[in-house]
Amino acid sequence: MIMGVPAAALAITGEVKTYQDHGESGGDVLRQFCPNCGSPLFSRVSAAPDLVFIKAGTLDDTSQFTPQMQFWTDSKQHWIDIAGVPGFPRQPGG
């Protein structure tokens, strides 16, 4: 699960390692990780340069996090069901 936040509102302290990848659209995706343990932290995509996508599992408090939509449902596990949350088989526009 990820949450998009304005890049200008995010302050990152400490080092992150970056892996450059390409998304479904062919655009650049920067995947950022903890250099010590390898945990994924953030993603930045060329299609949304003003947003940073934070991996929700890295948050200390997820009580304010409520999924609003789900992507790539064509490859989800059969036992996953987020009732009432709209889903897309792939990334919209991808």
Number of strands: 5
Helix % is under 10%
Write down the Rg: 14 Å
Query: From the structure provided, what is the oligomeric state, counting identical versus distinct chains?
Result: single chain
Distinct helical segment count: 0
Order of helices and strands: EEEEE
Q: Could you describe the largest sheet, including whether it forms a barrel? A: 5 strands, antiparallel
Query: Looking at the structure, what is the overall shape?
Result: globular
Strand order of the largest sheet: 1-5-4-3-2
What's the end-to-end separation, in Å? 18 Å
Helix-strand category? mainly beta
Question: Could you characterize the architecture of this molecule?
Answer:
The protein is mainly β and 94 residues long. The chain has a domain of 57 residues. Helix content is 0%, strand content 30%. It is built from no helices and 5 strands. Strands 1-5-4-3-2 form a 5-stranded antiparallel β-sheet, with no helix packed on it. A hairpin with a 6-residue loop joins strand 3 and strand 4. The chain is globular and about 35 Å long. The two termini are 18 Å apart.
Please specify the SSE layout and strand pairing.
Blueprint (H helix, E strand, L loop, with lengths): L1 E5 L10 E6 L5 E6 L6 E6 L5 E5 L39
Task: Give a brief rundown of this model.
With 94 residues, this protein is mostly beta strands. It is built from no helices and 5 strands. It is globular.
